[in-house]
Design a protein that fits this description.
The protein has 137 residues and is mainly alpha-helical. 75% of the residues lie in helices and 0% in strands.
Length: 137
């Protein structure tokens, strides 16, 4: 992936993480996006889930840095966990997840722009594509 896109993503991520409400706002947006999402997250420990989400941003970034081998190297266990044999997170939930994330970034990043939005979509897209592609693996 283009180094400029990665830089825009990283700078935006840093700005978003400064906002103490960023992760809570994301989960509010995501849970509000569909009854199916609320059903999947029933009984979730959100303190733990927010730590996992925070770590997943770094994992997605690592995968995007090397689109050839990065997804396989960095996302294999995540794909297995989210796949058809375990959590059963289907493609439609990733669409809602990404829409909720982009909405949250726009609200929390004081430097938000169309370029920032595109960078988030590109970086997250590498990981989402891999997870969807390996749903049945």
């Amino acid at each position: 992936m283009d180094a400029g896109v990665l830089r825009v993503f990283e700078e935006s991520l840093e700005r978003c993480l400064v906002d103490p409400d960023f992760l809570d706002l994301f989960y509010g947006n995501f849970l509000g996006s569909s009854p199916k999402v609320r059903e999947k997250f029933a009984g979730t420990d959100f303190d733990r889930q927010k730590l996992a989400l925070r770590a997943s941003f770094d994992t997605m970034l690592k995968a995007a840095r090397d689109e050839t081998d990065g997804p396989r190297i960095h996302l294999g266990p995540l794909a297995e966990r989210h796949g058809s044999r375990q959590l059963r997170i289907g493609a439609e939930l990733y669409d809602l997840w990404l829409d909720s994330l982009l909405k949250t970034v726009q609200a929390c990043d004081p430097g938000w722009s169309e370029e920032v939005d595109q960078a988030w979509e590109a970086v997250m897209g590498v990981g989402i594509h891999y997870l969807c592609e390996h749903y049945n693996s």
